[in-house]
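Here is one chain, start to finish.
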Amino acid sequence: MASRSDDLFSGVGRMVVLVDDPDAALAFYRDVLGFTVLYDQTVGGYRYLHIGVPGQDGVGLWLMPVTSDRERELIGGQSGGQPLLVLYTADLDRVGARLREHGVRVWNERDDAGSRSLHFADLYGNVIVVVQLLGG
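Its structure:
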């Protein structure tokens, strides 16, 4: 990734997704969506579980175990019902078929000028949008 010397940041690292069961969340993101484990260590009784899309090791999700009742209330709703994440794909039909094969509900399938997309939810109800960009 190219950066200029006056840029404040060199990239996006991790986005936090609150979970109550890191192993169940990992199984969904890894086994259904094909994410890979970027980092998985437990330090002082706290698990640091980072996952990401293959080939983009610097960017990912931190599946963060909740530590309070307030955090637990936010699971699945930390983005207020709006999409939590947008993923890009080269084959939206393949993604849709894979999600359905695993019993994941898919909705809002769209064909727009320049893109195709669909919505689904992870096992906690977080909305995720998958987009296939068309053309050049």
